[in-house]
Amino acid sequence: MCMSILLSPELREMIANNDYKQMQEVCSALHPASTAEFLSSLNVDEIWTILQALPSSLRAEIFSYFERDRQVEIVEESPRAEVAKLLEETPSDDRVDLLEQVDPKIAEELKKLLSKEDQKDVALLSRYPDDTCGAEMSSDFVRLREDMTVAEAISEIGVQTHLMETVYYLYVLDADGKLAGVVSARELLRRINQQDAPISEFMKKAGVLVTVNARENREEAVKKVEKYDFIAIPVVDEETGKMLGVITHDDVLDAAVEELVENAHLSAAVDPLDDETYLGANLLLLARKRFTWLAILLFGAITTALILKLFDNVSDRIAWLVAFLPMIVSTGGNSGGQSATLVITALATGEISLSDWRKIFVRELMMGLLLGLAMGGCGLINALLIYGASVPLLQLLLVPLAVLCVVFFSNLTGALLPLFFQKMHLDPALMSNPFVAGISDTLGTFIYMALATVLIAPLYPA
Question: Residue 205: beta bridge partners?
Answer without folding.
Answer: 181
